[in-house]
Write a structure and sequence with these properties.
The complex is a heterotrimer of chains A (about 280), B (about 240) and C (about 270). Helices cover about 40% and strands about 20% of the residues of chain A. By secondary structure, chain A is an alpha/beta fold. Chain A has two domains: about 130 residues, 3-Layer(aba) Sandwich (D-Maltodextrin-Binding Protein, domain 2), CATH 3.40.190; about 90 residues, 3-Layer(aba) Sandwich (D-Maltodextrin-Binding Protein, domain 2), CATH 3.40.190. Chain A is globular, with a radius of gyration of 22 Å. Chain B is of the alpha/beta class. Chain B is built from nine helices and ten strands. In chain B, the strands form two sheets. A six-stranded mixed β-sheet of chain B has the order 6-7-8-3-9-10, with helices on both faces. A four-stranded antiparallel β-sheet of chain B has the order 2-1-4-5, covered by helices on one side. In chain B, strand 9 and strand 10 form a beta hairpin. In chain B, helix 3 packs across helix 4, helix 4 packs across helix 5 and helix 5 packs parallel to helix 6. Chain C has about 270 residues and is mainly alpha-helical. Chain C has a single domain, classed as MetI-like fold, CATH 1.10.3720.10. The chains are: A alpha/beta (about 280), B alpha/beta (about 240), C mainly alpha (about 270). Chains B and C meet through helix 2, strand 6, helix 3 and helix 5 of B and helix 8 and helix 9 of C.
Chain lengths: ~280, ~240, ~270
């Protein structure tokens, strides 16, 4: 194939996909007109869910984020999100499975529709993410908090001017710090939050910005010799991620969440995983 | 013991694993003597020679060079080796050094002689083997005979009291053998004590003060070259000489 | 000029992977990353040489108390990923050292070496030396053992100690022979410095990654690749040249593939003229 014919081919593909998009767009505008003539609105039945493994609710999450999700000594996943997922699966009458994924890859993994049915990974509900996937109702209030070494007196991001702040790569913590820390702060991204805290302990960075509950849980371990300081820096909420084409599942999860919160199971989980505070 | 022997070997044994190569060798070499050691391959003659400066570790027995016991681990073997010259079948010149530097290296590093003096000795040594014009040439550019002569010059430069020659002409093309043997003859005439392992019968006849025939890890017979070559007593000697002729 | 750039940016692939604008803006940070990577490489490699030589001699020792630890070290390092070694050494080292944190946050630990804090630099160097030392040890050992036994015997028969024989006879010959392999290891080590992105050292790759995270664009990686190639391409050519030269000096003839190429060329010329 010559160069020009390659370009031609590319353009044809591009043009075709454009027109396909246009067609879909037209279809959407037509739909409201047709809907009333269809059968009347109804609660989505169980059959409407699409599941990766029939009969099983499969959850994805990065299990390096205690106490939300972690791998215990026996090699099993556990944590707040895992327990929550179990309860939801029970409400829906399904088996439950938790799969470990890199945080960076969770959204793409959900979109493929072949890896897992929902994301339970202490994921903050953010507009950019909501463009890609649906979120359930919020199930946890979190925010960014600064953690520093026990021996240091820093309280705010401004106190760390000229210093280094560790974050987990790709998290809201990274985005928040890049936006709000003084310009001469070096933001150091790590693969997971535990490495960032290890670096803080070792003196490689001088602060870590991360979700409040996790930082609090890590700081609760006296061996770490770190503390959380200052106020919560942004208000954030965690949600369960669901594929946009699986609205029936999202609604069912919301119903289940409401039930779990109402009947005290939610509080019991909080007690179990955040008792140290 | 009226005169101090240059080399004295007493009941030397050497085994490689289960294979016993030397089974009790006794030999005394007087100052100025040229001893030619003959024998079929595998007879242990090279191994014996290599035991003399402990390139091979003897299994048992004792070896003396002048007053010093080589086999005593308290003796400084490097000091002894510096006065025992050795020339190998495969020359073993240092390929990364010129002929002159080959000769100079041990003078500088072992004898700690100044550079100027070492250079002087090296050039004289190369002249002695007829190679003063090749002083700045690397070994790869020299013929086998020339390389072997540099190797002899290298050993001689250390001013050794005894020279060991281990089949030094075996790896040479026939037309190059003579130039090396001529150097050795010159050395012998100059009164150097020499132990020579060789197959060159002519050389042995002309130069040797004693011929030693080894087989099966022991000395079978020894005497003047005439005695051993013309009137061998031992059956193995007769057999060996019969094959050579 | 501006028109060309505008046109290039309008092509999605070009914009995403090799945007001239973003690469141009990345250059100062990438240059800093390159300096950091080069500093890690040069210091790490220079210190790996004595480490490798020591391990090589230990592995060649007849004494098992010396030999076995060296064998274990070499096998362990060569048999495990560098990334794992970096994580263990980088995060583990401070746990062994009481007062490490005070050192790291103190004036000495904060000294900047090509943009890397001293406290990070020493751990990175330790990881590189431990890793590269094992590879160099095997290169040295193979090289030394390829020198004929007669060389050592000749040196020893002249009264040299083993150390002297090694220093003046064996090692100089070995180095000539293994120089191309040693340089290949140098190139490999340079590319390996990229792994330090995982522990938050701002070498070339982490610099690129940070810009990438900000711009959602792959071009900084391509810019970083350019910096890597700046060093690896010329060095790679040099290795090939040295290898060919070595083949000529050792065998007195040209390497096979070059002979083959000449023969084919001659054959083709013949065909053409016929």
């Amino acid at each position: 194939m010559s160069k020009s014919s390659k370009w031609l081919a590319l353009m044809v593909v591009f043009a075709l996909s454009l027109s396909a998009l246009a067609l879909v767009g037209c279809g959407e505008t037509e739909e409201p007109a047709e809907e009333p003539t269809e059968e009347p609105a109804e609660e989505p039945a169980a059959a409407d869910w699409k599941l990766v493994t029939p009969g099983t609710l499969t959850a994805g999450g990065e299990a390096t984020y205690p106490p939300f999700e972690l791998i215990n000594d026996a090699g099993e996943s556990e944590g707040f999100d895992v327990d929550l997922g179990k309860e939801i699966a029970m409400e829906l009458g399904l088996e439950y499975e938790f799969k470990h994924y890199n945080f960076d890859a969770l959204i793409v993994g959900l979109q493929t529709g072949a890896e897992f049915d929902m994301i339970t990974s202490a994921m903050t509900i953010k507009p950019e993410r909501a463009l890609e996937i649906d979120f359930s109702d919020p199930y946890f209030d979190a925010g960014q908090i600064l953690a520093v070494r026990m021996s240091d007196a820093y309280v705010t991001l401004d106190d760390l001017a000229g210093k280094k702040i560790g974050v987990q790569s790709g998290t809201t913590g990274e985005a928040y710090t890049r936006e709000n820390a003084p310009a001469d702060v070096t933001v150091v991204p790590f693969e997971n939050i535990l490495q960032a805290f290890q670096a803080l302990q070792n003196g490689d960075v001088d602060g870590v910005v991360n979700d409040l509950p996790i930082s609090e849980a890590i700081a609760a371990d006296p061996a770490r010799e770190v503390k959380v300081v200052g106020d919560v820096m942004s208000s954030e909420q965690y949600g369960i991620g669901v594929n946009k084409e699986n609205a029936a599942l999202r609604d069912a999860i919301n119903d289940a969440l409401a039930k779990i919160k109402d009947d005290g199971r939610y509080d019991a989980m909080i007690e179990k995983w955040f008792a140290a505070e | 013991m009226t005169e101090q022997a240059m080399v004295r070997i007493e009941d030397l044994h050497k085994s490689f694993g289960a294979l016993e190569v030397l089974k009790g060798v006794d030999l005394e070499v007087a100052r100025g003597e040229v001893v030619v050691i003959l024998g079929p391959s595998g007879s242990g003659k090279s191994t014996m020679l290599r035991c003399v400066n402990r390139l091979e570790e003897p299994t048992s027995g004792r070896i003396f060079i002048e007053n010093d016991e080589v086999t005593d681990h308290k003796t400084n073997i490097n000091e002894i080796r510096a006065r025992v010259g050795m020339v190998f079948q495969s020359f073993n010149l240092f390929p990364h050094l010129t002929a002159k530097s080959n000769v100079m290296l041990a003078l500088r590093k072992v004898k700690k002689i100044s550079k100027e003096e070492a250079e002087q000795i090296a050039l004289e040594g190369l002249a002695r083997v007829g190679l003063d014009d090749k002083a700045d040439v690397y070994p790869i550019m020299l013929s086998g005979g020339q390389q072997q002569r540099v190797a002899i010059a290298r050993a001689l430069a250390m001013d050794p009291h005894v020279m060991l020659f281990d089949e030094v002409t075996s790896a040479l093309d026939p037309e190059l053998v003579r130039e090396v043997l001529d150097v050795m003859k010159g050395l012998a005439k100059g009164g150097m004590t020499m132990l020579v392992v060789t197959h060159e019968m002519g050389f042995a006849r002309d130069v040797a003060s004693r011929a030693v025939f080894m087989d099966e890890g022991v000395i079978q017979e020894q005497g003047t070259p005439e005695e051993v070559f013309d009137n061998p007593q031992n059956e193995r000697t007769k057999d060996f000489l019969g094959h050579i002729r | 000029m501006e028109g060309i750039i505008e046109y290039l940016e309008s092509i999605k692939f070009v914009h995403l992977f090799m945007s001239p604008t973003i690469i141009w803006q990345s250059l100062p940070l990438l240059w800093k990353g390159f300096q950091a990577a080069a500093a890690l490489l040069i210091v790490g490699y220079l210190l790996s040489l004595p480490a490798g030589l020591t391990a090589a001699f230990m592995k060649m020792s007849k004494n098992p108390i010396v030999r076995i630890p060296a064998t274990f070290y070499i096998d362990f390092i060569r048999g495990t990923p560098l990334l794992v070694q970096i994580l263990v050494i980088y995060f583990g080292f401070p746990l062994l050292m009481p007062g490490w944190r005070e050192f790291a946050t103190g004036p000495i630990g904060q000294i900047s070496v090509a943009g890397i804090d001293m406290s990070q630099f020493v751990r990175a160097i330790a990881a590189l030396v431990i890793n590269s030392g094992a590879y160099l040890a095997e290169i040295f050992r193979a090289g030394i053992q390829s020198i004929s036994k007669g060389q050592l015997e000749a040196a020893r028969s002249l009264g040299m100690t083993t150390m002297q024989a090694m220093a003046y006879v064996i090692i100089p010959q070995t180095v000539r022979r293994i120089l191309p392999t040693m340089m290949s290891e140098f190139i490999l080590l340079f590319k390996d410095t990229a792994l330090f992105f995982a522990v938050g050292i701002f070498e070339l790759t982490l610099q690129a990654r940070t810009i990438q995270a900000r711009t959602f664009n792959m071009s900084p990686y391509i810019g970083a690749a350019g910096f890597y190639l700046m060093l690896t391409l010329p060095l790679g050519r040099l290795v090939a040249y040295l290898e060919a030269k070595l083949a000529v000096s050792e065998t007195g003839r040209e390497p096979e593939n070059r002979q083959e190429r000449k023969r084919r060329k001659a054959a083709r010329a013949k065909e053409a003229s016929a």
